[in-house]
């Protein structure tokens, strides 16, 4: 498995059978390197969305039109994307699992909101926010937490799915901050690799992963802090 951080909460995941973008927020993302846009969408098979905020839906509509990739989102967000002309849209919801060739995606809880104010000035509720657990055939299990605070049922997510890799928001203000994110990782999971995200993009959230690293105590060795565009292989 190859994992590329594209800034904010956007990741490219390459598996034996799929090329996946999660929360592809490129346009307007101060951390995104525009020169990597073509590579980010190369050979794309799927786009997975954690929730409906603009900094997570991002460029999904344009990417789906350009590549023909299947977009998977919660039912409300998927219906909204379909109304915007996205051709292949799959839907799920909290607790449900969607199966593809070589991997599956399970929607789990996240403590956050999910809406957009569109160009007509109307606020659209776009379902509940989720985390996404990817069970990949013969490869590590990956959990993208989405935007969330800590919650005790993370223990159940670990019990049910035993994720190896955690993509963890640490930026504070809109998600848990570094110290709380570290507590979530240490208390509820046995990750072999943790990659922090949702920081270093906008000025009002954390600029670095330093607080998170410090709070991981004796487990900082499992944390990978890539630069935007770096590839982590697992």
Would you give an account of this structure?
The protein is of the alpha/beta class. The protein has one domain (2-227): Metallo-beta-lactamase, Chain A (4-Layer Sandwich). The chain has helices spanning 37-40, 54-57, 60-67, 75-83, 154-161, 178-188, 210-215; strands spanning 2-5, 11-14, 19-22, 46-48, 70-74, 89-92, 97-100, 103-109, 115-117, 123-125, 130-136, 142-144, 165-169, 193-197, 231-233. It has a seven-stranded mixed sheet with strand order 6-5-4-3-2-1-15, covered by helices on one side. Strand 12, helix 5 (154-161) and strand 13 (165-169) form a beta-alpha-beta unit. It starts with a strand and ends with a strand. Residues 7-198 form the Metallo-beta-lactamase domain.
What can be said about this structure in brief?
This protein is of the alpha/beta class and 234 residues long. The chain has helices at 37-40, 54-57, 60-67, 75-83, 154-161, 178-188, 210-215; strands spanning 2-5, 11-14, 19-22, 46-48, 70-74, 89-92, 97-100, 103-109, 115-117, 123-125, 130-136, 142-144, 165-169, 193-197, 231-233.
Q: How many β-strands, per DSSP?
A: 15
N-to-C terminal Cα separation, in Å?
A: 5 Å
Percent strand equals 25-35%
CATH class: Alpha Beta
The succession of helices and strands, N to C, reads: EEEHEHHEHEEEEEEEHEHEHE
Name the CATH superfamily assignment: Ribonuclease Z/Hydroxyacylglutathione hydrolase-like
CATH fold call? Metallo-beta-lactamase, Chain A
Strand order of the largest sheet: 6-5-4-3-2-1-15
- Quickly give the structural class: alpha/beta
- Radius of gyration from CA coordinates: 16 Å
The average pLDDT value, as a whole number, equals 97
Q: Indicate the percent of residues in helices.
A: 10-25%
């Amino acid at each position: 498995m190859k994992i590329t951080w594209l800034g904010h909460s956007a990741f490219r995941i390459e598996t034996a059978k799929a090329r996946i973008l999660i929360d592809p927020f490129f346009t307007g993302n101060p951390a995104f390197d525009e020169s990597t846009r073509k590579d980010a969408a190369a050979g794309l098979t799927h786009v997975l969305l954690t929730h409906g905020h603009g900094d997570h839906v991002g460029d999904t509509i344009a990417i789906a039109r350009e590549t023909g990739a299947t977009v998977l989102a919660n039912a409300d967000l998927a219906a909204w994307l379909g109304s915007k002309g996205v051709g292949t849209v799959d839907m799920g919801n909290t607790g449900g699992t969607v199966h593809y060739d070589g991997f599956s995606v399970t929607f789990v809880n996240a403590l956050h909101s999910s809406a957009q104010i569109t160009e007509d000035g109307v606020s659209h509720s776009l379902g509940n926010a989720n985390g996404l657990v990817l069970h990949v055939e013969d490869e590590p299990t990956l959990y993208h937490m989405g935007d969330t605070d800590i919650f005790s049922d993370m223990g159940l997510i670990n019990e049910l799915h035993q994720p190896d890799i955690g993509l963890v928001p640490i930026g504070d203000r809109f998600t848990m901050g570094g110290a709380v994110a570290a507590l979530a990782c240490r208390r509820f999971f046995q990750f072999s690799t943790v990659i922090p995200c949702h920081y270093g993009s906008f000025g009002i959230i954390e600029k670095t992963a330093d607080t998170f690293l410090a709070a991981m105590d004796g487990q900082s060795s499992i944390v990978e802090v890539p630069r935007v565009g770096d590839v982590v292989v697992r």
